[in-house]
């Protein structure tokens, strides 16, 4: 069930009309049923997978908490990691690793029999797997006590607004909201409605329209050259931002209507001045997860520069692989790790933006955006062969497709102005402080864009494949 579908609108209206008249316990029961209906809409067979994952970490977290010996606590934590990563590895990476091994063996001159399975990737498995893993790790580290209420924990794992594409919530932040009474206030409704409107604008106007520029180039790279490829890369930068941040906005908005606060997943990432700052602004729930549970576990920056660079490299390599079972994602992770290492080698720790002169800041932002777009080229290609063709064709001349440029300018202008206002004000909900007439004008403009350009009931969100 897609957020940008009429099925979801009807689904949410029915759920919400019942939700608001129930007490907390019955609300949680309704949320669990609704979440399983929402997830089962894609493929009911994978409901058993999320149920198994929920039971495993619920039981193992209790075992960790009940043990006094460190060796026993660590045993159950390792068991949790093996179970979660085992499920993720089988469904997401089995064919990738076996096919890669076959290619290596063939390169060595042998002719092995490939072993592949017809495995369907469960929607959102990377998101809820990391969410359940963080729960047992936090219990092991003493950051929270495990809940004995299985219903509350199940809602934490399967909460439908953020189930399939995040944000990846932490139990320390979200579980108390599940366990306590929620208050639906006028302020929450206002903020939630704004986030939903903004999210739909980003998805159906920006992401789905820019897909018409991006897809022809990346699906047929041999037919395009020069600046056409450059424009398609820039278009993809805003397509993936509109698509993914749009999903997060809708998820946060729907949650606010029900009295929940999800973590902010994006903070104007294309205003970043360096790689460190970019990852503090882009997919924040993943970048902080990788930092807290992988980078720090590897040693962080405690054991000298060389090990710090190693830890950065491994963290981003695995972060790239998290996105998909393909070599372009591995290469994208290597590239991101290389950017972080290079920046740290040359500049050390990044400075706070407000301490830098405005002119220099603008130059830094423009340069960093180019580095980000190089990464998006690696991220978007369908294969390594396509990447080779695109790089070769990039240096061949082709007339600038001005129609694409003009179309991008039309659909992106409202977003760029809103993003600039947020960046300058430092307030993600700064619009709520505007005069009523100014707010109304923005709402009407976005609604007009959705009516004129929106592709309602359109394509899936990009991150559903991860």
How would you explain this protein's 3D organization?
- The protein folds into two domains: 21-179, no CATH class; 187-465, no CATH class.
- Helix 8 (186-219) runs antiparallel to helix 16 (402-425) and helix 11 crosses helix 12.
- It has 17 helices and no strands.
- Helices cover 70% and strands 0% of the residues.
- The two termini are 16 Å apart.
- It is mainly alpha-helical and 466 residues long.
- The radius of gyration is 23 Å and the shape is globular.
Major sheet summary line: none
How many DSSP-defined strands? 0
Structural class by helix and strand composition: mainly alpha
Low-confidence stretches: none
Strand content: under 5%
Straight-line distance between termini: 16 Å
The number of helices is 17
Mean pLDDT: 90
Radius of gyration: 23 Å
Order of helices and strands: HHHHHHHHHHHHHHHHH
Oligomer: single chain
Q: Give the helix level as a range of percent.
A: over 70%
Helices and strands, with pairings:
Blueprint: H1 6-19, H2 24-40, H3 47-66, H4 70-107, H5 125-141, H6 150-158, H7 171-179, H8 186-219, H9 226-257, H10 275-281, H11 284-298, H12 305-323, H13 327-347, H14 358-380, H15 384-394, H16 402-425, H17 436-453
Helix pairs in contact: 1-2, 2-6, 3-4, 3-5, 3-6, 4-5, 6-7, 8-9, 8-16, 8-17, 9-14, 11-12, 12-13, 13-14
